[in-house]
Amino acid sequence: MPETSFQGQIVDSEPASDVFLVIGIPGSGKSSVSAALARRFPLGAHIEGDHLQDLIVAGGHLPSPEEDLEADRQLLLRARNASVLARSFHAAGVVAVIDDVVVRRAHLEYYREQLKGLPLRLIVLAPAAEVVSRRVAERDKVLADDWSFLDEALRGELAGEGTWFDSSDLTLEETVDAILAKG
User: Fold this and answer.
1) Which one is predicted more confidently, 25 or 133?
2) Could you tell me if 46 and 34 are in contact, meaning their C-beta atoms sit under 8 angstroms apart?
3) For the purposes of burial, counting CB atoms within 10 Å of the CB of 27, is it exposed (0-12), middle (13-18) or buried (19 or more)?
4) CB of 103 closer than 8 Å to CB of 13
5) Higher pLDDT residue, 46 or 134?
């Protein structure tokens, strides 16, 4: 077997054109849209917030409607880790697409601080509540709680932030086309 050396290999190259942060409530289509969006680029990476949360295999606290300071801390840790990955991919010329449940201004501002200096494109997926309810009921992923109240928080706290898409009547591909068309 020939000997291979990584010495002299360059990981970083021309930085990527964009970093996307795709947000919305559970069931809004973030993961599906983000994966499809990342696939549209010659080099694209999908960074899924839920998967980063799953890396905590002991002592994990999932977000819940009740106050849980440790869950809040872990939510910010997940945002920081997603941002570290996005920054690394960006430097290597890979378009990073982060998806996460972000409905509070403070959480969004934390992401913005972590991604400062990158060409960030904030995408807000906001389909109609009845569409989200149907999607949640049809999917394999089971949610522990009814998160529909988050829609009100998202629309109230983040109105006017980023580019909003009501994907209620759009297919996955049509949603990605619409995001890319907004360039």
Assistant:
1) 25
2) yes
3) buried
4) no
5) 46
175 falls within a domain: yes
Residue 5 lies in a domain: no
9 occurs within a structural domain: no
Report the alpha-carbon distance of residue 82 to residue 168 in Å, rounded: 27
- 98 and 80 Cβ atoms separated by less than 8 Å: no
**CATH value at residue 78:** 3.40.50.300
Q: What's the confidence (pLDDT) of residue 158?
A: 94
Structural domain span for residue 131: 19-181
What sign does the CA torsion over 119, 38, 161, 154 have?
negative
Conformation bin of residue 117: beta by default, left when phi > 0, alpha when psi is -120 to 50: left
Is 49 a member of any domain? yes
> Considering only CA atoms, which of 37, 60, 64, 59 is closest in space to residue 48?
37
Number of domains composing the chain: 1
pLDDT at 27: 85
Task: Give the pLDDT confidence of 108-156 residue by residue, as tens digits.
Answer: 999 999 999 999 999 999 998 878 877 777 766 555 556 677 888 889 9
Residue environment code for 66-90, b if the CB has 16+ CB neighbours within 10 A, otherwise e: eeeeeeeebbeebbebbbebbbebb
